[in-house]
Predict the structure.
Amino acid sequence: MKDSLRAESVRLTGHGGDEIEAYVAQPLGDERVGSVVVIHHMPGFDEGMKEITRKFAAHGYLAVCPNLYSREAPGASPDDAAAAVRALGGVPDDRLVGDVRGAVQYLTSLESSNGRVATIGYCSGGRQSFLAACSLPLDAAVDCYGAFVVGTPPEGSPLKIGPIVHLAKDLSCPLLGLFGADDQYPSPEHVAELEEALKQAGKAYEFHSYEGAGHAFFATDRPSYRPEAAKDGWQRIWDFFGRYLDS
Amino acid sequence: MCTYQTEKLAVKGSGKGPEGWFPLTSATVYFDHPAHYPAEHSLNIDFLNLEGGALSRVAVELDPASARELARAILQSIEAVPGH
């Protein structure tokens, strides 16, 4: 596999026709390849998320990470943007779906796209990856420890998000779920409830929960990083995308 | 975990951010992942003026013991002055 790639900031058309910031990474080659929309975690559109976006390109996929906080905090540092969005109640679900739709259209319009698209999201983005896969026609989706697919935020939280497990019947593609057994949001009970809903709906899914890992075990720049879980998780992702994104 | 445990309150006062002083309108207090402090979780406070944009922010990330001491010191300082 050739490993040359190009990565850069771009603008793409998101929900409501809004122009939003995004970070795109693409392998440089003649092959037509699958695409991945990377949905960033609650701390925002930061270096870690851009690094993950490049990793997908290095493995042969077109990848784009839209900045879901573009509207509230254009040009702000990721932590300032995340603080503003937290105070304002989080990203509305309908806007998220519109922004992911825009990212999908951006990727599939690229000459090297083979037309197949997946989403992957981390933390709050895990829930949003599931939401996108229940709202848009996709080929695969990955939920990395997304909270509040099942359950509700603590009372008094300004975050305007609620459970979306009832959408399982609308899931448009196979779902890969990667979770930490020590996590509380989502807890093992939350993960079990989601799994049961997927079973009831007859949907294809593959879940892995890692002992000794909590939330954000993929985040190499945080103390929550768990190398063994992350290494196995990445292998699961490559296997999954190999099955559903490759021509 | 992302605790999502967030308290939001209206505040009056001023804060000094990267662009100088600005009037504060709100604060969020949450126990969650820090952006900078090297721990899995911290007690985070953002003093904000949401109308002023994302740069109108004063942020701190404290370990829980420090946060408790800060809360105690704030209350002690206020209570030491009659009428406030």
About this structure: The mean pLDDT of chain B is 92.
